[in-house]
Specification:
This protein is an alpha/beta fold. The protein has a domain at 30-176: Rossmann fold (3-Layer(aba) Sandwich). The protein is 52% helix and 12% strand. The protein contains 17 helices and ten strands. It has helices at 11-16, 18-29, 34-41, 56-61, 79-84, 91-101, 118-131, 147-168, 174-197, 207-217, 222-238, 259-267, 281-284, 296-306, 317-329, 344-358, 377-393, and strands at 3-4, 46-49, 65-68, 110-114, 135-139, 243-244, 247-253, 270-276, 334-340, 364-369. The strands form three sheets. It has a four-stranded parallel sheet, with helices on both faces. Helix 12 (259-267) links the parallel strand 7 (247-253) and strand 8. The longest helix has 24 residues, at 174-197. The model is unreliable at 1-15 (pLDDT under 50).
Amino acid sequence: MYKSLIQPGSQLEKAALVTLEALRKINQTFPNTPEIQEWLSQGKKIFGWLCTYVPEEILHAGGILPIRITGYDREAELDDGNAYLYNNNCSFSRSCLQMGLTNDYQFLDGVVGGSTCDGARRLFDLWREYIGTPFHHVITVPRKYTDSAHRLYLAEIELFKSHLEEYLGLKITDEALKDSIELYNQTRSLLRELYELRKRPNPPISGAQVMQVIDACFRMPKEIFNSYLKKLLQELKSSKVSYQGRARLMLSGSVLANPDFVAAIEQQGGLIVADELCTSTRYWGDMVERRNGESPVSALARRYLSNYPCARMFPSEERFRRIVKTAQDCKVEGVISEIIRYCVPYAHDLPLLTKRLADVNIPVLSIDLEYGSSGSGQIATRVQAFLEMIEARK
């Protein structure tokens, strides 16, 4: 079983995690967080986004607070979502729709989606039709990295920017975009620094705690989040808290925003030290880098299309290469692939990924689950067996 190398719950551990506790409370109050309420009290606009291929910097440069629509971070009744989205759509899409239909996101002024999979695309259509916001836009996202694909995606980003400017009645300047890019790059740099700490033999933060940090990142202005994260990094670097487990594991697969699921794995003894999720590394993995004479919009388009790839992208080798490199850099001993039921892209490429990891002697445990699952007894049994297999290989 994973454990802190100091007494859990001791004053020493609590002192080391003051900022983490503050971020946890923000997540507990979402979507009615103090930060969101403060933004609304100033008469400012808030937009929800549905996919990591939506460039937040353009929204931020227009004076908007972008927040991620993530659905419930727990198992919940989805009766309304099921009524509009047939249940062979993934439960992530139905969970997001449920929250929209029950007015949990009633404060949004706009929703921006990406045409990345059928579930996400239909979610956007239903949101526009039955929930509605003053602004809505969907971005067509190519599946390849070719020059023509980049030209298409750049045209889509320029169209999105023009649509947003028309709605706001203002011009989003290159200077505003440069400032937003700098801010978001700072977030990425700080998150990379956090993930570097996880490479330690006994990291000062658990996988479940890291997911608390990432969840909070989606739910407040980046200016505020960055200040929180700087404080957390200072606390962790001076902390005597450290974690160990029976095996070092990596999470891969579908969208995940539930720290309780990660905690359920860690309670069995598997310490999560790395991940490959659109709610983690694929979100912050690559910086926006401007080439000489390149416009900010062009730099954003290049970064977002070429970022740490989703399973929908082709060819798959670039994604597999990055997963293997991450696993090796973090000295991962096993990968847990969590796939939401009916999440087709990740289900289809799992056999190829499993073979690619087997080539470097890293085993894979595939877990099929519903979005928001906190880890059933069956999952605990399978994780236990996986850990025993890893231990037998040592």
